[in-house]
Amino acid sequence: MYDIPNTINTNDDILSAPLKGNFDYIENALNDFDGGNITAATIPDDAFVTSPETIRDETLPDHVVSGLTSADPGATLTATVASGLAYIEGVRVNASSFNHTYTASKDCYVDLDKNGSFHVTEVANGATEPALYTNSTRICKFVTDGTEITSYSDLRTLNNFFSGRWLAWTPTFTNLTVGAGGTLNAKYTQIGKTIHFSLYWKFGTGSAVSGSISFSLPITSVSKVALESIGTGGEKDHNTGVVYPTSVLWRTTTTASIHFSKSDGTYTALSDSSSTAPFTWATNDTISVVGTYEAA
Q1: Please, are residues 188 and 248 in contact by the beta-carbon 8 Å criterion?
Q2: Average pLDDT over residues 213-221
Q3: Which pLDDT belongs to residue 2?
Q4: Mean per-residue pLDDT for 94-111?
Q5: All domains of the chain, ordered by start, with CATH?
Q6: Average pLDDT value over all residues in the chain
Q7: Could you tell me if 238 and 285 are in contact, meaning their C-beta atoms sit under 8 angstroms apart?
Q8: Span 28-34, average pLDDT
Q9: How far apart are CA 200 and CA 220, in angstroms?
């Protein structure tokens, strides 16, 4: 313990030596701290006007910072989600990897909660996406058949709220056969709760349309009125150069559909595509749409 070397009384002349002595005392006292009295988490949340966790929860959507990815593992029902970092309801979650064997012939949704635990909800193939597990963010979806995982969908919400980066996504199509040699360019960006997306598909060998075209959305949306318009675009016949206007309609919280119209009056309302409508599809024909909607 240091003795205060100087005392300054009322009406004393303020001289440099006494002041310097007091500053030296403070400096020496601070230098003697070895950190033993300074420990982690000694400032409780209630010492703040509002806790940092609450501030993050109220200002940032749940999102993944890094990791928590997977892939279709091939001829097996078992897959691993990699370790990663996420913010869930304001809590910083460092999650370990998750290895799980999924049930045959199911759509399997994987959620991560704010305590770092994974939860799997399984529904029938093609059924409506189940509700999010309590206090969680959705990570991915595995689809299984009778013997193996047949597809993997990345459902993470990434930390893209302020940067405005456009991220790639791989939509799942209905009534559109991808085939070989085609070109897919699908991107989206999330700013707050607003999702902007663009999707371009150029037909290759084996690509085909068999009915009303729908695709999976990059991020789960809020519930909307069925068939509400969320985008526009065009279907182009490469052979003639004619572009038929299209509208993108909301179907479910995870899917949207594409419908075309003809300016020549052949179709008086938005119509479903088919193998011959609005034209006979062939290599180099294209579908291009853009849209905006609100994330869940």
Answers
A1: no
A2: 93
A3: 46
A4: 97
A5: 61-154 (no CATH), 167-294 (2.60.90)
A6: 85
A7: yes
A8: 66
A9: 20
